[in-house]
Amino acid sequence: SFLLGNVQQRGHEVHYDVAGRRLGFGPGNCS
Amino acid sequence: ASANDNNLSHSYTVSVTSLLPPTVCNRTRTALPQGLGKASLDVVSKHGPCSKLNQGKSPSLEETLRRDQQRLYSKYSGRLQKAVPDNLKKTKAFTFPAKIESVSADEYYTVVAIGKPKQYVSLLLDTGSDVTWTQCKPCIHCFQQRDPLFDPSKSKTFSKIPCNSTTCKKLRGLFPSDDNCNSRECHFNIAYVDGSGNSGFWATDRMTIQEANIKGYFTRYPFLLGCIRNSSGDKSGASGIMGLDRSPVSIITKTKISYFSYCLPSPYGSRGYITFGKRNTVKTKFIKYTPIITTPEQSEYYDITLTGISVGGKKLPFSTSYFTKLSTEIDSGAVITRLPSPMYAALRSAFRKRMKKYKRAKGAGDILDTCYDLRAYETVVVPKITIHFLGGVDLELDVRGTLVVASVSQVCLGFAVYPSDTN
After folding, report:
1. ω into residue B383 within 30 of 0, thus cis?
2. Which residues of B260-291 are buried (b: 16+ CB within 10 A; e: fewer)?
3. How many residue contacts between A and B have a Cβ separation below 8 Å?
4. How far apart are CA B117 and CA B148, in angstroms?
5. Which of B261, B340, B414 is facing A15, going by the closest CB pair?
6. N or C, which terminus of chain A has less Cβ within 10 Å?
7. Residue, of B81 and B151, whose pLDDT is higher
8. Of B341, B352, B333, which Cα lies nearest the Cα of B413?
9. Are B304 and A23 in contact (CB < 8 Å)?
10. How far apart are CA B119 and CA B131, in angstroms?
11. pLDDT digits over B170-187, tens only?
């Protein structure tokens, strides 16, 4: 298995399109 | 010169001191994403300087890693349980404890209002958990939390789920309880052979997120809340968990939230956010999407497809068929990214090769084995790591998403092996 933890998610927007069954990564910096 | 330029574009050059966790809370940020059909909440690192939960104390890196490892084992155990026959589940060997509630490696929390009038509780964000729960008053035996205990008797919108209801029957199917059913309360009782556990009852109430309300009557079922009365766990000051997975009992499913996003702050002194509802179209064009896999045994988690990892611009040598066999999951509650052993070995080897000029340091716990002593340096050049997902989605990690720092003398590659020992 591969598990993407929260350290590696830092600084990126993570998008959960639950209805559309897709997961996205966006520009980060939380700004 | 060209080769050097190429190398530089595949690495970060940063000052060593900038890698250290900040000690001052940086609140500067543009407004939270808001607008029609969406609402946002602040997200704060539990152990960072903006946290109101940690009282200025942070666990050691070893302690954080130990908790993260425990969480992984208990989650793995839960996943495994669904794949084995019932007769095996009943054996003593199989039910040996997975102390879920003593594991608190979750790093980020948000504050939400429950009930009417509003009562504020700090909940850990967890896309790897199902139920949203908080400790409730009266709490017979509860772990310490920073917020006042949620008091159901003061909420006009709070209502217990009766035991004779269809909802309770479904919940007891998912979370078996040994308690006798009484008409007023639908109990859950998660107990482990070492004496730890959680007990309480199921309820519904209103949750308020900024100006937008997620109300029970907007949903197929009311907003479901696990009300804990007795717990031997520890959430390091938080009041409970916001379960964000795709199971039938999560807040996402229960409230028909079809879209949410978050940003976990980096550096983790500043604040991040979680937004419920879809962003505007101008912004979404910068988002790259990969499909969430839907298979029956994996459906409650957010499983995606890994297609590769690059270190310093060079892809690790694994075939496409290798990745098709992998189960890949994203989890906001897990701290360290885990890889299969062969992939971790390749990643570590490539990373060490590019970091060979730096002095090695002892590992952190039994989990992080590639650490460096950077006391002799003002700046450090760290190879960029990019994780590739199906659909041409590349996640280029922030330098603080590559390294985990205990101190300048112990800066570690923030990846570890996914344990293969199912025992």
Report:
1. no
2. bbbbbbbbbbbbbbbbbbbbeeeebeebbbbb
3. 174
4. 14
5. B261
6. C
7. B151
8. B352
9. yes
10. 19
11. 888 877 776 777 768 898
| DSSP 8-state symbol, B252 | H
Taking CB atoms and an 8 Å limit, are A10 and B264 in contact across chains? yes
Look at residue B201 and give its three-state secondary structure.
Answer: strand
Residue B421: its pLDDT value, please?
A: 57
- CA distances B62 to B238, B297, B405, Å, are 21, 33, 11
**Which residues, numbered 6 to 25 in chain A, qualify as contacts with chain B under a Cβ-Cβ cut-off of 8 Å?**
6-25
> pLDDT tens-digit profile of B113-143?
898 888 999 998 989 888 888 999 998 888 8
Catalytic residue positions of B, numbered: 126, 331
ipTM over 0.85: yes
**Cβ proximity of B210 and B41 under 8 Å:** yes
Pairing of strands B410-413, B415-417: unpaired
Closest to B338 (Cβ–Cβ): which among A3, A15, A16?
A3
Considering only CA atoms, which of B204, B143, B154, B127 is closest in space to residue B135?
A: B143
Extract the tokens encoding B75: 């989650």
Q: What amino acid occupies position B399?
A: V
The first and second tokens of residue B401, run together, are: 């998403």
Using CA atoms, how far apart are residues B105 and B311, in angstroms rounded to an integer? 27
Q: Do B306 and A19 touch (CB under 8 A)?
A: no
Angle at B146 between CA B142 and CA B152, to 5 degrees: 60
Q: Dihedral sign, CA of B121, B59, B363, B267?
A: positive
pLDDT tens, position by position, B358-378: 999 999 888 899 999 999 999
When CB atoms are compared, the residue of A1, A22, A23 closest to B418 is: A1
Strand B119-126 with B240-243, pairing: parallel
